[in-house]
Amino acid sequence: MFWHYTRRDSKVLLLSTLAVFAAYGLLLAGDLHLGKESSMLPAQSIGVYAGVEQNEYNTLAAELSARERELAAQEAVLRGGAPQQVDSATLLAIVCVGAGLLGLILLNFFLDSKRRRSLAG
């Protein structure tokens, strides 16, 4: 029952919930760059292109690597599904949401015990 909490407790609960959902939204939108990615942004805008003229060796190597990728995909399908990769942003989002939900659960237990003590006393 939300109305049994004090005004300060209700604000803490509301702000923590909003913070968790805001962080989750920022991670999904890709607006939050953490770690090395944010320091490498200027370096990513500069590029150098170097190429080698096509000859029979690099053409055969490209065909071979394409064939290996096809075989790996077929093997994955035969084993029971396509290979799934989880990128770091998705993993970070899952961890943040899990930590936020754990924090909200612990806050709920704390506020419930505080309410029980106030009703008993």
Characterise the protein shown here.
- With 121 residues, this protein is an all-alpha fold.
- It has one domain (2-33, 54-120).
- It has helices at 7-29, 36-39, 41-44, 56-79, 88-120.
- Helix 1 packs antiparallel against helix 5.
- The mean pLDDT is 78.
Quick rundown:
The protein is mainly α and 121 residues long. It has helices at 7-29, 36-39, 41-44, 56-79, 88-120.
Largest sheet: none
Give the % helix. Answer: over 70%
Nearest-integer average pLDDT: 78
Radius of gyration over C-alpha positions, nearest whole angstrom:
26 Å
What pattern of helices and strands is seen along the backbone? HHHHH
Low-confidence stretches: none
Global shape: elongated
Strand content: under 5%
- Secondary structure tally: strands: 0
> In total, how many domains does the architecture comprise?
1
Quaternary structure: single chain
Tally of helical segments: 5
Instruction: Quote the distance from N terminus to C terminus.
Output: 18 Å
- The helix/strand class is mainly alpha
Show the helix and strand layout.
Blueprint: H1 7-29, H2 36-39, H3 41-44, H4 56-79, H5 88-120
